[in-house]
Model the fold of this input.
Amino acid sequence: MTYSGSRMLLSSEREGQVSRFNVWVTILVPLLALLFQIYVPLFFRFLNFLEMPLLVVVYLALMRRNPVSGLLIGAAVGLAQDCWSKNPLGMFGITKTLVGYFAASIGMKLDVDNVLIRFLLAFFFYVFHQSFYWVLEHALLSQQSPFDVTGWLGLGVLNALVGAALFHFLDKLRITA
Amino acid sequence: MESFLNRYRNITVLLLVIFAQLILLAVQVKNDQHVRFIRVWSVTAVSPLARLVEGMRGSSLSFVHNYIALHDADAQNRRLQAEVDRLKLELIFANNELNTADRAKALQLFQQRGPSKTLAATVFSTGIGPGKVVYVDRGSASGVMREMAVITPDGIVGKVSEVYPTASQVLLITDSDFAAGVVSAKTHVHGTLKGGTPLCKVDFVAFEDKVEPGDWFYTSGDDRIFPRGMPVGVVKSVRPGQPYKEITLDPSGMARGSPDDVLIVLEGVHQEIPDTPPANQQVYMAPLPPPLTPPAGTADTAATAAADGSTSPVAARPPLGTEADKERALYQKAADGSGIVLGGGTTGEEGSGRPPDFTKLPVDPRSALQGRGAAPPLAAPMPKKGTGSPTPAKGTGPADLKTTPDAVRRANQAAGGPGGMPQP
Done:
């Protein structure tokens, strides 16, 4: 049994290996995720449920295991996403900043190479992202969007499935020591 | 202090970033306007990429359709050739339909015929988040401004909500924030259209005003965005309410889903509210065909025949129309020769004159019409009784008959039929 398969919790923060990425990966992957989000649903409407920028933020934050780096990536991707939204700037930014921070913090405690952990984290952060965005909409913008927990849970599973596959693909872009 | 910051570095940075974004958000909400430059950077950075991807997609599809899919063209060609007779008419119809249904042509036609000055644009991306927005590939560089109307020939689609140098954000009619002034075509009742998915609502229509399902609503021009007279949609349901009716409306501009190509109204011109619903499709009408010119040999023959007085050139050339038309032309010719107007009065009536002499008809009407030589006699001879043989009696065969109606009648009487009609 491999190390990843045998344990899910790390005994210390030093035990987790910090992944490194090329600068172009850190820039291009979120950009492509954003492009996917604005372009692909134009032709495949059913793919609208995917939150590719969120999945990319979760992945980069988990793998870098640095809360500051995670929250900055989250803020940048979120603000870029806000630019393509009709809502004011900062809604996605704040949400993804928190996602990036928490993902990086959790990434220090868990074995993020484990597929099950990745699936659960993607699911959790999707539901967190949607619910926190809903709270912001209500609290800051007074918008009356529906509180659709069932929908979020279902879409969370689908996003987690796609996320697990996407993380596997993004692993190929890591710089190995 | 420094050690404190070092110890709580992560949470401090988090709070700073969140606080900064909250300030940003608060400024936008308070001023009711977005921070423009960040959006301009982002949209300007991503829109060329999106357009590039869109171009690559179009080229790839074209390549796949034009080259890779050719491997079965041979089989397809054989199959099509086997069915070509049956498919010819369908192809003509399909081509006509394609011609008229082609989006670009339809837009161009609409653009030329509409009084408003418009600019064609292509939707290249959709918005992110809960709102119904799309992005089009025309921006301030093309003269687009905020609050300009976005339409298609089917109806209004939305309005420009943000403008960037190379792109614009369009708030669709299905967004809950969308609103426009509308007026019903039938009763000229004014209301306010509110966006919704999939049906929109018409608010502020008093309960005593008469609006029924099936009524068309047009833009009223009151909002100073949409010129008056643009189709908006058809009423789906009307429910009584106090003080206003609850009216749902199916937007005609989104009847085919989110459009790919739109027109941005640069300078709107108000029009009258039409009484009839807008036509769904333009109808293509081909130009008149050129007059028929007979081949050289045929013309000579016809001229010679006319000179001989045997057959007129008109009779030598097959007329267009149904068989009934041809027969009518034939009898008209006989009547013209007698100076009688067909249909000019009841036969036998005083002053109406005598009936035309139809015995002066050409020897073989069909051959005269079609120029194919001798045709069978008008009435076929009866076979001999008991034999069932189709052999005609002597003297009644086609070659022996003088092919006038009298001769035919006599031949039939000889075969046993009274009145010249064949007897069963």
